[in-house]
Amino acid sequence: MTFQIYNKKLGFWVGESDFPTQDSDFGNTEVPLPGEVGQGITYVFDESIQMWRSYTAKQWETYLNEKVVGLPTPYDDFQISVGKQLLNLSKTVINLTNQLASTTHSVTELQTQVKELQTQLKQLTEVQQPAEAKEEAQHV
Question: What sections of 1-140 are H helices per DSSP?
Answer without folding.
Answer: 57-69, 74-139
